[in-house]
Specification:
Elements (H helix, E strand, L loop, with lengths): L1 E6 L5 H10 L3 E7 L2 H8 L5 E5 L5 H10 L2 E4 L6 H10 L3 E4 L5 H4 L2 H7 L2 E3 L8 H15 L3 E13 L16 H7 L4 E5 L2 E5 L9 E5 L3 E7 L5 H5 L7 E8 L3 H11 L7 E2 L5 H9 L6 H9 L6 H9 L14 E2 L1 H12 L8 E13 L2 E12 L7 H18 L7 E3 L4 H13 L5 E7 L2
Parallel strand pairs: 1-2, 1-4, 2-3, 4-5, 5-6, 6-17, 7-12
Antiparallel strand pairs: 7-15, 8-9, 10-11, 11-12, 13-14, 15-16, 16-18
Helix pairs in contact: 1-15, 7-16, 8-14, 11-12, 15-16
Length: 443
């Protein structure tokens, strides 16, 4: 019997735990601050156990790590290095869906000496995006080609039948994470030149794209794409862009949200203010003409869709802000809380994941365009597509390590065939697979 420790019982942990408990040879402990969440995940399975854990209690954490053969960290990324360091100390393997930080990569030699793998970025984005892209890149290289252009976009969205609010969005993961992503700069490579998008300009540059069977979406740059030239080992590429899909209207709305200053994290005393009070203070307006003042501040007509969205969100209302009197909060806190309140999935609604790679490959005698697309839906009233596509790769990767089918040591992300091939093959058996199309282009 192999012992698996899962740290965290959040929104994406359910498929991960279920997959591991379905195997007869794993004992699974789910450790989290709110033990009731862990209890729901393990249910009455005799090989599952819910543990109460404050991850800041390093002594308790270390005892759990010592018990485990595999540690899967689904807690906030700030704790991953602490957990990984304990895994090295006690020669335990480690898997997480989060990005491999510089501090994590610095553990490479120690992990190799301990004979353990620290496998990062095994979720959806990052994770399935890496693995599916590298499978195509290696196929191009093996065929004597080079990657001339590569764009990759991913979006976690309401399914069309659940897309019923003005924002075209509902939360299947951390609302604060979504909001904070709007503060990042972006960089990418286009036709051999580096394009830099300052944080204040993010959402001003976007492109419309049609996806067969689903309609039109906005796509915009996501973070810094440039390091992936090295990660994917395609120094020859002239274009590399990673980005995000959203339903139309998203980008212009976030331009307005940023202009209003609602992403400011400075703590303030809101002292019983209403949403209308807050908005009036941001636009130097008056409550009796607030909609007009808001439109003028944003340089938009009063009947603009962006104004309607902010109105629907409640920023013109006399409703009290979700900040207790005497306690401080930030504009970003208020926004994230309101978005979470309004952009929720109703019982029985489905979410949707779209991940699409678009390659141009250059061969000695031709060029070829390769488009690889995954579209997945959540199960109404059950598992979300986001949970499945984030949790399942981590569960599968962990099982493959425990079974000796992934044997590397040190710090890794899933960009080599020995890691990504068995994971992708198993993902296909649970319905996560890509549709690939290609066409020959004029040279």
């Amino acid at each position: 019997m192999k012992n698996v420790l899962v740290l965290g019982a959040g929104l994406v942990a359910k498929p991960l735990v279920e997959y591991l408990l379905e195997a007869p040879d794993y004992s699974v402990r789910v450790a989290t601050r709110t033990v009731s969440k862990a209890e729901k995940l393990v249910g009455d399975n005799p090989r599952g156990e819910a543990i109460s854990l404050n991850v800041s209690d390093t002594d308790a954490l270390e005892e759990l790590v010592k018990w485990a053969d595999m540690v899967i960290s689904m807690i906030p990324y700030a704790h991953h290095v602490t957990v990984a360091t304990l895994c090295i100390k006690h020669a335990k393997n480690f898997v997480t869906t989060s990005y491999a930080s510089d501090a994590m990569r610095a553990l490479d030699e120690d992990a190799k000496k301990a004979g353990v793998i620290l496998l990062n970025e095994v979720g959806l984005d990052p994770g399935i995006d890496h693995m599916s892209a590298m499978r195509i890149i290696h196929k191009i290289k093996d065929g004597g080609g080079q990657v001339e252009s590569f764009t990759s976009f991913c979006g976690g969205l309401p399914a069309p039948d659940a897309n019923d609010n003005p924002f075209g969005y509902k939360f299947s993961w951390s609302p604060r994470g979504v909001v904070l992503a709007g503060k990042r700069e972006a960089q990418y490579l286009k036709n051999g030149g580096i394009v830099r998008v300052a944080p204040e300009d993010l959402f001003k540059e976007y492109w419309m794209v049609d996806i067969e069977g689903l309609g039109t979406f906005e796509s915009y740059p996501n973070g810094n794409s440039l390091p992936y030239i090295e990660t994917y080992q395609i120094p020859e590429t002239q274009t590399l862009l990673r980005g995000t899909y959203r339903y139309p209207g998203w980008c212009n709305t976030w331009v307005a949200i940023k202009k209003l200053g609602l992403l400011d994290e400075t703590e303030k005393d809101f002292g019983g203010l209403t949403y209308a009070d807050l908005t009036a203070s941001l636009v130097n307006g008056k409550k009796e003409s607030l909609k007009t003042d808001l439109a003028q501040f944003l340089g938009l007509p009063e009947d603009a869709g962006v104004i309607d969205k902010l109105d629907w969100l409640g920023f013109l209302s006399d409703e009290k802000l979700p900040v207790e009197s005497g306690k401080k909060g930030s504009f970003l806190d208020v926004l994230a809380a309101r978005l979470l309140e309004k952009l929720v999935y109703a019982p029985g609604e489905r979410d949707m994941i779209i991940l699409r790679h678009d390659f141009v490959a250059k061969y000695p005698d031709r060029k070829e365009r390769i488009v690889s697309t995954f579209i997945g839906y959540g199960e109404a009233g059950a598992t979300t597509a986001m949970a499945k596509t984030v949790g399942m790769p981590a569960a599968i990767a962990s099982a493959l390590v425990l079974e000796g089918k992934i044997t590397g040591t040190g710090v890794h992300i899933p960009v080599t065939p020995d890691i990504y091939e068995p994971i992708l093959n198993e993902l296909e058996t649970v319905g996560i697979s890509f549709k690939e199309e290609s066409e020959t282009l004029a040279v």
